[in-house]
Amino acid sequence: MWPISAAVAAALAQSHGIAVTVDAVRDGVYLGRVPFDVAIVRITGRNRERRKLELVTAEELFPSDPADMLSPWGTELLVQYSVLGADGMPLGDAVPVFFGGIDTPDRVRRSGRLTVSCSDRMADINAAKFLAPRVPASGRPVVDNITSLLQEVIPQVAVDNRCGSEALVPVGIMWERDRGAAVDELASSIAAEVVARPDGGFLIRPVPTIADPVAWTATVGAAGVIVADQSAVSRAGVRNAWVVSSERVDAAEAPIRVVVYDLDPASPTRWDGPLRQRPGFWSSSLITSEYQGLAAAAARLARSRGLARTRRLTLLPNPALDAGDVLAVAVDGEFELHIIDDAVLTLHPDDAGMQVETRSVEVPES
């Protein structure tokens, strides 16, 4: 969750005004403010590219020259959301909700409308394939190698490392072509993930779990933020054990293989429980110790267990929420903790809304 002040957090559950700005930049140079009719930010925790923007603006802004403000040749858009007080002034700093490059300006002639589609900066990392097989710097920390792979594409981009791992990259690792997959594998080997932040930087963080601090509480009633609530229970995609293995390059080193089970007696997805046995498997030569393998397996188990209970909520908008945040849901005397997987934030000068999809293995408390 993006940090917000107590005043902003309190206002989000009440009637309040908002101000949304869209600014265009290229190579760090400000190009101008983009007027818009509506903007939709789609957020997901399921893909490398976490945020997508769809912006509807004036048809006359269609780019006819590579140097035009909305040209896809290097222009990036920064979308910021401010919560206004009763006096019409912002209650705190604006919250960034999107930063990334323009993919496609799509015009229908004489419609008056231009639709602009954008992707966050991880799209640039995915697109920057290796020109030749890449061997990472062995003996250096995994997080340093991740940072190098990012900054080779976007020089000097800020990389915020919130992962305490000191694991080193072993010898014998090589990637053929896919830079994004290399970043993914490095992060997974230390039970982490790499996220393009809505301010343009990158974040290396532990894989979110239900044990993380609650980012926001959603309730119904006069002071509530829930507009609509839909729940489902499913076993599709659930895994109640993960096997993580590593074939060592050095033949003198024994292969690593660890298994982590869902053994919580209260869990409906527990191993050999009602779901019986549903293991998942992941292998990487980056795993160099049993401890590292256990951490990677536990992170994957935490994510796949949560698919058992899902919830789709329509909320009063909270621009600070992100995929991976823990949401406390209190409805009809029941209390559940959920992790946000997907969110859609609709931005309009006169109206805004937010839909979120979540997962949890918790049995509701009453």
Features:
366 residues, mainly beta, Thrombin, subunit H, Phage tail protein beta-alpha-beta fold, 13-stranded mixed beta sheet, 3-stranded mixed beta sheet, 19 strands
Condensed summary:
This protein has 366 residues and is mostly beta strands. The chain has helices at residues 6-11, 122-127, 142-151, 179-188, 290-305, and strands spanning 17-26, 29-33, 38-44, 51-58, 75-84, 95-107, 113-120, 159-161, 192-196, 202-206, 214-219, 226-233, 241-246, 256-261, 279-283, 309-315, 326-331, 334-348, 351-360. It folds into 3 domains: 6-119, Thrombin, subunit H (Beta Barrel), CATH 2.40.10; 125-206, Baseplate protein-like domains (Phage tail protein beta-alpha-beta fold, 3-Layer(bab) Sandwich), CATH 3.55.50.10; 209-366, no CATH class.
What does this structure look like?
The chain is mainly beta and 366 residues long. It has 3 domains: 6-119, Thrombin, subunit H (Beta Barrel); 125-206, Baseplate protein-like domains (Phage tail protein beta-alpha-beta fold, 3-Layer(bab) Sandwich); 209-366, no CATH class. The protein has 5 helices and 19 strands. It has helices at 6-11, 122-127, 142-151, 179-188, 290-305; strands at residues 17-26, 29-33, 38-44, 51-58, 75-84, 95-107, 113-120, 159-161, 192-196, 202-206, 214-219, 226-233, 241-246, 256-261, 279-283, 309-315, 326-331, 334-348, 351-360. Strands 1, 2, 3, 4, 5, 6, 7, 11, 12, 16, 17, 18 and 19 form a 13-stranded mixed β-sheet that branches. It has a 3-stranded mixed β-sheet with strand order 8-10-9, with helices on one face. Strand 6 and strand 7 form a beta hairpin. Helix 3 runs antiparallel to helix 4 (179-188). The chain is globular, with a radius of gyration of 22 Å. It starts with 5 loop residues before the first helix and ends in a 6-residue tail after the last strand. The model has no long low-confidence stretch (mean pLDDT 91).
